[in-house]
């Protein structure tokens, strides 16, 4: 299947193929849709600061609202919480790291 994708106001034509190199057709797409699971979500930093504590490890089963990180910003400690229920797949920062707005902190699946 071919799609038109717009990135930075430029249009690109893309073709979707499966891992065997065959073009994805409507029949393949319906079959693949049934196999999908909850997509991963990137937890991004809301403001610049320093990670002063990491409260979880990869594999942790987070509930919406659980505190995952403590971020020091403007001399205040801010709790970064889970946006939804899920498993912490990756943690992409370390304690003491300086982070900017929209830096990825973790991947939740």
UniProtKB/TrEMBL annotation:
Keywords, ordered alphabetically: Biotin
InterPro entries for the chain: Biotin_BS, Biotin_Carboxyl_Carrier/Decarb, Biotin_lipoyl
Keyword check for Cytoplasm: no
NADP as UniProt keyword: no
Domain Lipoyl-binding: 33-109
Entry-linked Pfam families: Biotin_lipoyl
PANTHER family documented for this protein: OXALOACETATE DECARBOXYLASE ALPHA CHAIN
Name recorded for this polypeptide: Acetyl-CoA carboxylase biotin carboxyl carrier protein subunit
